[in-house]
Recover the amino acids of this structure.
């Protein structure tokens, strides 16, 4: 009987990891896929490798938190299966809708449902996690706002990517050994920009693995049904399976349907968000990449828009109405996530307070309102489903 339950537990853990891969791959590589920098298959392969690396290195701390710190309940195999089932079910619903959900909030919600039902919730640990959930989006906002206000125009000049026809690299067979060289139309700037897009996607995959591998396997590790290292391999492999299959829909949503965010802005958001998530994972805090990234986008747009006024003007109430469309002001021709474009001409960035508000497009130029509303709604509903379902199970079913 124990062997059968263990097999069921492993299957449910794979199911959870499968859905995490479907959700997280879109967030990590949606910008790269949407801008036609890499294919979906390449994105899935990179997601598999770097998510496993993140889980193997930083993710151990998060596994300990989810597996033993949030609730004081002694995990049995049956309890582990119940928790994992509701995590997987809630994430599956979000993937069916093609929307990346917060896997960490979903996992913590399922754990909290168990703790509330049994009266074993560790309120101190839960309070610490919720505190970081509140602080981290604010931190992401202000870091991105500073970048948007003071550094974004210069970054556009340095890193805007030109996308040309033909292969990025080709093999030069003129020598004794073939060697890769730039393609016929490829510039060095395009090569560096493309490698930056892919590299930051890999960094996001690493941070996703650091935070989310635990969501698939922590209950099994907490019940001592499986060791730490085999659990990480199992979770990483399951994430890879989801990346190669159902992640296609979330990559389309993030890369094509949700936003025409300039590619440079997407890279800034990815770097800020991944750094915060990786840092929290090292502290053992399950972090919501989705919410942190959203606030990073808002902060970057706010910072860019406020370049039109000085701090003195803002104190006097002469502050512009802020739109996320401000991100495109310096780079009307720059590639977008899900759009086209080229590299803007380099020019000295106008000083703060001298820029024209009319050059800043509206938010609708970057966001599809209906898709955005659907994404925000489901990102809040999915963790709630896991929490309520877990509470009802452990409150009324003796396990």
């Amino acid at each position: 009987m124990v062997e059968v339950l263990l097999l069921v537990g492993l299957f449910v853990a794979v199911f959870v990891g499968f859905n995490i891969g479907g959700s997280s791959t879109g967030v990590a590589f949606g910008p790269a896929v949407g801008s036609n920098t890499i294919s979906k298959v390449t994105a899935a392969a990179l997601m598999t490798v770097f998510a496993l690396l993140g889980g193997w290195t930083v993710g151990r701390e998060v596994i300990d938190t989810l597996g033993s710190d949030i609730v004081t309940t002694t995990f049995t195999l049956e309890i582990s299966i119940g928790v994992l089932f509701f995590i997987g079910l809630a994430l599956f619903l979000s993937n069916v809708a093609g929307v990346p959900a917060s896997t960490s909030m979903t996992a913590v919600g399922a754990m909290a449902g168990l703790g509330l039902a049994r009266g074993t919730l560790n309120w101190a640990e839960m309070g610490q996690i919720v505190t970081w959930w509140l602080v981290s989006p604010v931190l992401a906002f202000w870091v991105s706002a500073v970048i948007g206000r003071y550094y974004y125009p210069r970054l556009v000049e340095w890193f805007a990517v030109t996308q040309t026809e033909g292969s990025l690299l080709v093999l030069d067979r003129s020598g004794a050994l073939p060697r890769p060289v730039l393609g016929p139309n490829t510039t060095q700037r395009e090569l560096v920009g493309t490698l930056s897009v892919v590299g930051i996607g890999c960094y996001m995959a690493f941070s996703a693995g650091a935070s989310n591998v635990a969501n698939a396997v922590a209950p099994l590790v907490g019940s001592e049904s499986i060791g730490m290292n085999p659990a990480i391999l199992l979770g990483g492999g399951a994430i890879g399976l989801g990346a190669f299959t159902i992640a296609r829909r979330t990559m389309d949503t993030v890369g094509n349907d949700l936003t025409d965010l300039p590619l440079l802005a997407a890279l800034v958001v990815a770097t800020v968000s991944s750094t915060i998530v990786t840092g929290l994972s090292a502290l053992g805090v399950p972090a919501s990449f989705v919410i942190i990234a959203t606030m990073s986008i808002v902060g970057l747009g706010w910072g860019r828009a406020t370049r039109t006024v000085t701090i003195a003007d803002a104190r006097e109430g002469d502050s512009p109405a802020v739109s996320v469309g401000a991100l495109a002001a310096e780079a009307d021709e720059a590639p977008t996530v899900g759009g086209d474009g080229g590299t803007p001409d380099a020019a000295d960035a106008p000083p703060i307070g001298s820029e024209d508000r009319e050059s800043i497009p509206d938010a609708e130029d970057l966001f599809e309102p209906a898709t955005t509303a659907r994404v925000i709604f489901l990102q809040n509903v999915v963790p709630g489903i896991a929490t309520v379902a877990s509470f009802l199970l452990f409150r009324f079913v003796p396990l």
About this structure: DSSP finds 13 helices and two strands in the chain. The first strand starts at residue 169 and ends at 172. The CA atoms of residues 154 and 348 lie 8 Å apart.
